[in-house]
Amino acid sequence: MEYEIFEIFKSLLENIISLIPNVLLSIGILIVGYLVGKITAKAVTEISKMIKLDESFKNSILGEQFTKAGFPLSHLLNILTRLVIYTLTILAALSVLNVPFLDQLGMSIVLYLPKFTASVIIFLLGIILTEWLSDMFEKFVLIETVPKRISMMLSAGFKYFFYLVLIFIVFEIADIAPSVIASIAQAVFLAVAVSVGFTFVLLIGLGLKDEAILLVSKESDFIKPGIYIEANGIRGKIRNVTTFLIEIVDDSGVVHIIPKRKLLKDGFKVFESE
């Protein structure tokens, strides 16, 4: 009996001693990985600041919120870099211990880690690219062709459409329920297309063609509250301007409401501007 107990303790001690080199190697890997992760993350942060990614990121809608919360793009990339390196370091340290379950778990994480990293990077850089494309679209395509308010609406629609595309791309790269995401994307894009088509039908097909022209006419931008005009035999000061109507207060204090479409069609004279 005593001999059997002695053999058990001897076998246990031999197993522990045999693990000591692997444990020491794992600790060494963790220390080296920690130092490499810290140095690499700091380098990524400095490069991000050098090429002014923080400023571009801050100009975006989401980037502004992240920055206010204390997470500029350089800090987010710093966190992502350390997360990737530390994860790989921990997995490498665990693999040295030769534990089958941990080896299988580590292999699954290693196979998914590139997808996760790529999706996060594409999302962060996609925010900057989306803002840049929307600004280019507004400044060089819309500003000279449509009124400012319509330009802002189209620019916002363009921006949110690209944000939507970006989200679907990120989910696709991250391999998160690809079949479900594909179905949702098709439904969303179909809804957008139907909505746009339905809007044109309402504006053009149902007798609102003249009002639709007001929305894209730059001439209506000159009609602003505070100016003195004469139109349709009425001379007075414009008090308020809506999308389709204009309020004019004449010299007697009487308020006249004129359809903007009629004003543009019949013409008007500007006498004074405040």
Give a quick rundown of the structure:
The protein is α+β, with helices and mostly antiparallel strands. The chain contains 9 helices and 5 strands, in the order H-H-H-H-H-H-H-H-E-E-E-E-H-E.
Write the layout of secondary structure elements.
Layout (H helix, E strand, L loop, with lengths): L1 H49 L2 H6 L2 H8 L4 H24 L3 H43 L5 H26 L4 H28 L3 H8 L10 E5 L2 E8 L3 E6 L4 E5 H7 L2 E5 L1
Antiparallel strand pairs: 1-2, 1-5, 2-3, 3-4
Helix pairs in contact: 1-4, 4-5, 5-6, 6-7
Describe this structure in words.
This protein has 274 residues and is α+β, with helices and mostly antiparallel strands. It folds into 3 domains: 1-98, no CATH class; 126-160 and 169-220, no CATH class; 223-273, SH3 type barrels. The protein has 9 helices and 5 strands; from the N terminus they run H-H-H-H-H-H-H-H-E-E-E-E-H-E. A 5-stranded antiparallel sheet has the order 4-3-2-1-5. A hairpin with a 4-residue loop joins strand 3 and strand 4.
- Relative helix content: over 70%
For the sheet with most strands, the description reads: 5 strands, antiparallel
* Assembly state (oligomeric): single chain
Please report the number of helical segments. 9
Q: Supply the number of structural domains.
A: 3
The ordered H/E elements are HHHHHHHHEEEEHE
Distance between the termini: 109 Å
Low-confidence stretches: none
Strand content: 5-15%
What Rg is obtained from the alpha carbons, in whole angstroms? 33 Å
Strand order of the largest sheet: 4-3-2-1-5
Shape: elongated
Overall pLDDT level: 75
Q: Return the structural class.
A: alpha+beta
Q: Tell me the number of strands.
A: 5
